[in-house]
Specification:
The protein has about 400 residues and is of the alpha/beta class. Helices cover about 40% and strands about 15% of the residues. The chain is globular.
Length: about 400
Amino acid sequence: MSVAPKPTPRFVPRDPLTLHPETRLVHGGTTRSPFGETSEALFLTQGFVYDDAESCEARFKGEDPGFVYSRYSNPTTAMFEERMALLEGAEAARATASGMAAVNAALLCQLSAGDHVLAARALFGSCRWILEDFLPRFGVETTLIDGGDLDAWKAGVKPNTKIFFLESPTNPTLDLIDIAAVAEIAHAAGAKLVVDNVFATPLLQHPFELGADVVVYSTTKHVDGQGRCLGGVILASKQFVTDHLQTYLRQTGPSISPFNAWIMLKGLETLALRVERMQASADKVADALASLPGVEKVIYPGRADHPQAELAKRQMKGGGTLVTFVVKDGKEGAFRFANALRLIRISNNLGDAKSLITHPATTTHQRFTPETRAEMGISDGLLRLSVGLEHADDLIADLAGAAEAL
């Protein structure tokens, strides 16, 4: 029987969490092959081979640790998962093909017919679809509330409430929800809190420290952050993964491509630098927007005039990389403004190296009625700007030029 050379050990210092996040983003979870490569290896393989039938049997039984099939796990994907877990301070992570696959799996893996989900109504459009349209098909009840109203969370609890679900800051209105307070209510009700932390990034907000049970990301956004590929990740305790998530992912197959996982690993190496630069520019852009003619309102968690500025200081480490603002003349004004931009591009993505702007009422939230959008705080004049890596002065000049079209 041939014996393959052992790979060099993973990067596992005595206590990885004592290292700064920037260091974990570069070194965390690395497994080197016998070739000792500097960059993490890309394992583009569907399956794996075994020395003998007995080894194969032991691997499938879980008696012999190792990889079985890339739908279940893969060496490159495992490195990405471990690095995300180290960054987030989670016990375990599982990667998925997209952010929505992560949201769907995080919810469905722990729900059964007859359960109830309590969620904030201010959510990304696809998340609302899962709650309002998809889950009820399988006998799961959903209640949507004002996420900023703690009394509404308490009042919304039912005997069969299984999950609390929220995103903070919200998409696209950048409202904040008190995660620690909602976690306390959820746990008192015997429910788990699932937090979508995409807008805050793992660097600016730590939901587990605030009491969350499960954290989800679309890694398409800041983690890749360069417009290349899709991905998602679910972070939770090892017990949650064992009891709920692992079997669901294995049997339903929303697995990430090893290539995409490799891209995400490379993105993580520069995540701290990019978020720091993007946030610094967003601070300046938000202040500049507030002074432009035709801009009626600026929403940015880092500004003192944000309705929840104190919560932002307590819960986040900065204002983030997105700025939302309202221009005059509704949809017509918003379209004139967006069309007049020359540097900032129109796109529904966010967290990218390039600055991107979108009109939520006609894109991410277009399927909702005007009444529902108004309830969510999405007016026809609202625009969502994702600030990229360009020089802040160039972005401000572009925005000032667009304001002349109002």
